[in-house]
User: What shape does this take?
Amino acid sequence: MTRFLIDSDTAGDDVASLLFGLLWPGITLEAITVAAGNVHLHEAVRNALYTTEIAGRPEVPVFAGAGSPLLRPLVTAHYVHGDDGMGNSNFPAPVKAAEREHAVDAIVALADRYPSDLEVIAQAPLTNIALAVHKDPSLPEKIARLWIMGGSNNALGNITPAAEFNFYVDPEAAHIVLQAGFETTIVPWDVCLADAVLMREELEPILSMHTKLSEFYLAVNAAAWEFMRSDVETGGVDGIGHPDSLLMAMAIDSSVMVESQRCFVDVEHRGELTSGYSLVDVNDVLGREPNADVVTKANHDRFKQMLVELLKD
Ligand code: RIB
Ligand code: CA
Assistant: This one.
């Protein structure tokens, strides 16, 4: 039984990943920790709490963490996910509240409780993870695997030409985490764009499903779908992107990962034009010790099959 902790800046695509963690058989989601990113911390916490309730799993604890990056002012993505981060669905407030313990303390405590038996899904700016490493420098040895949705492998970013959002928002945190010694798998933006966008015709099974979860999924992703359609960077793609849920699906079912390459990866945090750029040394030019398995291809059809399976109940 694989145990997971998901660190989330809960908006549309984060939600589908949380649903995998909350509902997929054969795994345990020990906790959801929250950082600011897509939306402000209080919004991301509210969205995570609501998701646990919609999934019928209110007992899974949610911990509030960093409200801003380590050194920089927060940059949010309300323009992608809507004012509430949930496709402007304006759901009612969740019934339950977040735990009193800080997310960073919860990450360290869970790693101590389940040494070498906890996998961390990092689908937000890496602020909480970096602070947890600062609190407990031995954390990387206790975590079985750190899965990161972030960066772009020698390809365009999604918030600047150089940078993907999670690494752009807190590049110092990304640099700290990547050099900390975790067993790390990275799913970069270019793979998410290539292998985890479901086009309108592929969404038909979900559009015609009319279950509580399918309607919830469509509602929270409505704004992001509209953004993909209209955004020049994606070239007006009529579909929904799934960076975070691709990461989670891969952690649950290894067949979703088709190809990966072990490389040295670091993140630019001193640059002006390149802040948040992920250097992925695919040709080992720098001779630096490789520190991450970088996914280069995912199984689109298996991911789609898992998502439809997840939402049909
Ligand atoms: O660049 C995409 C990533 O940034 C996703 O995790 C999305 O939810 C945002 O956090
Ligand atoms: Ca996210």
